[in-house]
Amino acid sequence: MPSILTTALALPLRGLTWLGSQGTRGVAAVVFIAAAVPPLGALLRPYLTEAILCLLCISFMRVDLVALYGHLRRPALVATATAWTTIGVPLIVGLIAHATGLTARAPGLSLALMLQSMASPMMASPALAALMGLDATLVLITLVTSTALVPFTASLFAGLFLGDMLSVTPLTLGLKLLGILAASLLAATAIRWIFGAEAIQRHKTPIDGLNIVILFIFAAAIMGDVVSDLVREPLFTLSLAALSFAIYFTLLAITTLLFRRIGYERALALGLMVSQRNLGLMLAATAGALPPATWLYFAMTQFPIHLAPYMLTPIARRLTARAQASGSAATSTP
Known about the structure:
- By secondary structure, the protein is mostly helical.
- Helix content is about 85%, strand content about 0%.
- α1 (about 1-20) crosses α13 (about 205-225), α10 runs antiparallel to α11 (about 170-195) and α16 runs antiparallel to α18.
C-alpha cells in the first residue's frame, strides 16, 4: 500500500516540480490561460477565499526567521519602507482621487484604486523577487510588518476616504483582515511545526509549483468575465488595462527612486513589493461584494502583476551583477 501511494504521488510531485522550475515564465503564463478559458472563472470563483488563504499560508510557512530577525535588528529602513507602502501610498491615492473628483464621477473605479492602495503587498512578493535574482530578505521583513499593520491602516483609510462606498464598515473590514491573516499564520505555524523548516526548504521547487497553481485559481476566479467585458465594452476595458499598467509601473519607479540610496538592486526589490498589492486580501475581507467596475479593474491588474516580473528579470539580473561586481571590487581593494 505505501508503494502504491508513493507511485500515485510521484507524478503530481514531478508536475509541480517542473512547474516550479519555470519561474517567472510560469507566473506570466497563468494570466493568459485564465483569460483564455472564461468558464473556469465561474467554476473557481466560489473558491476565491480558500485560494487567498492558501497563498497567505504558503508565504508565512516559508518565512526565513533568521533573515527576519536580522532585519529587525536594523529597523530604520524597514520602518521607512513599511510607512511608505501602508501610509504614504494610500494617502496619496486618496487625496488624488478626491482632488480630481474621481470619487464622484467614477465611484467604482475610485473604490478599486483605494482598495488597491490600502492592500498590503502580495505574499508572493519575496518569492517573485527571488525568482528575479533580487535579494528577497528586505522584501520579506517589510512584507511581514506591512501585513501586520494593514488591518489597522486599511480601516483608517476606509473611514477617511471611502465612507459608505464599502458594503462593510471600516471596523469590520479591519477585523476581517485581521482574522484572515491570523488564520493563515496559525496554519503556517502548524505546518512548520509538523514538517520542519528544513523539509519545507528541501521541497522549495514543488512548493513554487503549488504556488503557481493557486495563483492560477485566484487569477481565473477574478478574470472569468474579462473576455465578455472586452467584447461588450472594448474601449473601457482596454482603458482600465492601460491604467493598471500605468499605476503598477508608476509605483515601481517612484519607490525605486525614493530608496535608490540603498542601491538600485535593493530599491527595485522594494519597488516590486510596493507595486504587487494583495487585492485578494481585500476581496476576501469584503466577501467580493463590489461594483462591476471594481471587479473589472481588479481583473486588469492581474496582467501587470503576472507579466512584470518576467519583463523586469533581465534588468534585475544586470543590477544584481553590477552590485556583486562593485562588492567584489571593494573587497579586493587594499
